[in-house]
């Protein structure tokens, strides 16, 4: 009798070899244990089934392993994977991914690098979006998993230009690398501190974690430098953003024609936007009123400052500034009265 704990010469337990075939007695399909008459998982495989294995023909009994749940209600198992043909030629299947954070940035350099690496354009997933929600990246991962499932004998490689195109921080990059490894996928980086194929074993994993942390530090430095630059430009009066719809020339035209008695609604059809996506179109009435309100605030501010200085000078000359009378009273109270 074969010991269930003893491994056969092939290195596989007896149960795996037996479950490669269906049972001719209970009709249990490959990958499932045998089924008893009461509907439970049998404590041992039926003789008609395990004798189909050549090396088990003279075995008297092959018990069902504990992980198959003998004595419990029978449930079908997972069918065994189809054995690969050793003569089947293997190949590398690459799927590319390119990303930039904003619409103003270009993907041409990444696309050219991926194409030059032998990846067709129809196998490159690209998007212009931040790393929080990446629809095309999820499509690339799903495609890679599907290709691996249909061609398990091939190496499926997810190729990116730089490591920072994959995630925002070291934890996200490491989790992604583990996910690729769990699904049998390979990560390839074309540029940066860790070019080449990512090796999930040995020192390759340590190097990847180290450079992922370096990429996160570099990202934080770039962010801080950008904020400092914006703050310096703001102190110099340079503010970012798109140019205003109502330019100074348009505002002067509106003010001049309003002074002649025309309304904003009458002036609006004669104005044209000079630049931007709406170049050549009329500005909205709301934009004109907003520009007039901002102009009124700018004009009222110097007048308010001048009026405040005038009032302060007048009060100081009249001795009516707050606190002066109290100061005089406190001085008079501090000097003692002379006795007669």
From TrEMBL:
Which spans does this entry mark as compositional bias, Pro residues? 1-11, 76-85
Q: Which domain of life is it from?
A: Bacteria
Q: Which residues form the signal peptide?
A: none
Per its UniProt record, what InterPro entries does this chain match? Answer: Phage_Znf_bind_put (IPR056911), Resolv_N (IPR006119), Resolvase-like_N_sf (IPR036162), SSR_resolvase (IPR050639)
Q: From which residue to which does any coiled coil extend? A: none
Alphabetically ordered keywords of this record? DNA recombination, DNA-binding
According to the UniProt entry, its GO molecular function terms are: DNA binding; DNA strand exchange activity
List the SMART domains hit by this protein, alphabetically: Resolvase
Q: Where is the composition biased (Low complexity)?
A: 65-75, 316-327
Q: How is this protein named in the record?
A: Resolvase/invertase-type recombinase catalytic domain-containing protein
Transmembrane helix as a keyword of this entry, yes or no, is no
UniProt xrefs under SUPFAM superfamilies? Resolvase-like (SSF53041)
Where is the segment annotated Disordered? 1-40, 61-85, 316-340
- Species lineage: Bacteria, Bacillati, Actinomycetota, Actinomycetes, Kitasatosporales
Domain Resolvase/invertase-type recombinase catalytic per the UniProt entry, residue ranges: 93-237
The species is: Streptomyces inusitatus
Q: Which ranges are annotated Basic and acidic residues under compositional bias?
A: 13-24
């Amino acid at each position: 009798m074969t010991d269930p704990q003893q491994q056969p010469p092939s290195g596989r337990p007896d149960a795996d070899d037996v479950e490669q075939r269906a049972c001719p007695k209970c009709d249990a399909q490959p990958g499932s244990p045998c089924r008893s008459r009461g509907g439970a998982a049998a404590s041992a495989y039926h003789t008609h089934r395990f004798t189909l294995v050549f090396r088990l023909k003279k075995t008297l009994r092959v018990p069902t392993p504990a992980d198959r749940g003998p004595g419990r209600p029978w449930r079908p198992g997972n069918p065994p994977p189809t054995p690969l043909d050793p003569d089947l030629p293997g190949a590398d299947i690459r799927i590319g991914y390119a990303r930039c954070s904003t619409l103003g940035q270009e993907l041409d350099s990444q696309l050219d690098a991926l194409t030059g690496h032998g990846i067709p354009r129809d196998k490159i997933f690209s998007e212009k979006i931040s790393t929080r929600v990446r629809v095309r990246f999820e499509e690339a991962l799903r495609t890679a998993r599907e290709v691996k499932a249909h061609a398990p004998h091939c190496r499926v490689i997810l190729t990116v230009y730089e490591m920072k195109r994959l995630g925002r921080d070291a934890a996200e990059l490491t989790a992604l690398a583990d996910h690729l490894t769990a699904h049998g996928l390979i990560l390839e980086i074309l540029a940066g501190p860790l070019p080449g194929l990512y090796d999930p074993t040995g020192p390759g994993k340590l190097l990847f974690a180290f450079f992922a942390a370096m990429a996160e530090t570099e990202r934080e430095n770039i962010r801080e430098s950008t904020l400092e630059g914006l703050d310096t430009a703001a102190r110099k009066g340079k503010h970012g953003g798109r140019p205003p719809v109502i330019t100074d020339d348009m505002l002067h035209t509106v003010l001049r024609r309003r002074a002649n008695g025309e309304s904003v609604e009458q002036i609006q059809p004669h104005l044209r936007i000079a630049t931007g996506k709406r170049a050549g179109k009329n500005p909205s009435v709301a934009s004109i009123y907003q520009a007039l309100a901002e102009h009124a605030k700018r004009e009222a501010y110097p007048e308010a400052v001048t009026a405040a200085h005038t009032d302060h000078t007048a009060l100081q000359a009249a001795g009516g500034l707050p606190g002066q009378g109290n100061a005089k009273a406190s001085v008079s109270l501090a000097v003692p009265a002379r006795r007669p």
